[in-house]
Amino acid sequence: MKLRSLLSLSLLSIGCSFPLRALEFRLVSWEGKISNLKYSNGSTQVPVEADESALSPVYHLKNSGPLVLYKEVQTEGKIVREPVATLPIPENFKKAIILLAYADATRKTYTGSWINDAPDIRPPQTVTYRNFS
Q1: ∠ at Cα 82 (79, 87), nearest 5°?
Q2: DSSP 89
Q3: What's this model's pTM, rounded to 2 decimal places?
Q4: Which of 41, 116, 121, 127 has an alpha carbon within 20 to 30 A of 10's alpha carbon?
Q5: Which among 73, 74, 76, 94 is positioned nearest to 84, based on CA atoms?
Q6: What is the pLDDT of residues 72-92, one digit of tens each?
Q7: Angle CA 42–45–47, to nearest 5
Q8: Could you tell me which of 5, 50, 8, 1 has the C-alpha nearest to residue 27?
């Protein structure tokens, strides 16, 4: 019994020693309001929205893969996930703002530009200006 407890405790401590890559992000839209999008954070589906006039609430992502935004659509009586954007996470980002824009004229898929929003990236009392033209 003691050996099992000791083994469980050691496995738990080893699992906790590997850092999970956690990311906080907010969304903003290049043009108009974008809604009905979701992403998976572990086993949880998280609905997201982006507006052109304000930043979204803060969202969290725990996995290390790309951020995949999708819509749920009904096909042949089944609800399926239709990916609309796959956004690889830049290295060492912990806080970000993602600028979402339509990828083409069909307005069915999106592209995203990552902006590092970590406090240690920009000095206090400063403004960062980005020209996307």
Answers
A1: 145
A2: P
A3: 0.79
A4: 41
A5: 73
A6: 999 999 999 999 999 999 998
A7: 135
A8: 50
